[in-house]
Design goal:
This protein is of the alpha+beta class. It contains 2 helices and 10 strands. The longest helix has 20 residues, at 2-21.
Length: 150
Amino acid sequence: MAKNLHRLLVLLLSAMLSSVAWAGSSSTLQLHILVLGGCNFKNWGDVTMDFGNLAGGDKSISTRVPVNCSTGSNFKVTLDNGLHANGTQRRLAQKNGAGRVPYSLIATPDSGTGSGRDFEINLTATVTQNDYQASPIGQYSDTVIMTIEP
């Protein structure tokens, strides 16, 4: 009986040591993230701005472009000079002709700091009667690339 008791104690002790050896353990998991600043045009493709028919007087047209910049991102909007510029003067080019009509194009705001919320960039294009009154009759167009950074 003492021999059986001894075996039982050894068996119980082994079982206890096994469960201690297989007891759970824990570890710390560290997570990191780097949030980068940036801006993007929201649901926006190519935009067409149409002066329509010009028959006298200066004419301005405008449109709005939805944008989002992450909180704290300093943004800058740039407009290139278009396909038909003369130096820095943007010009509309006559379709199938040599006519050119100077115009101005501005974006407001053209810089700022993002808030993480959507906002709009207003684009305004202007032609003056003095610039188009001597131009040949016809259709005119230009293509400008608008960029927002970062």
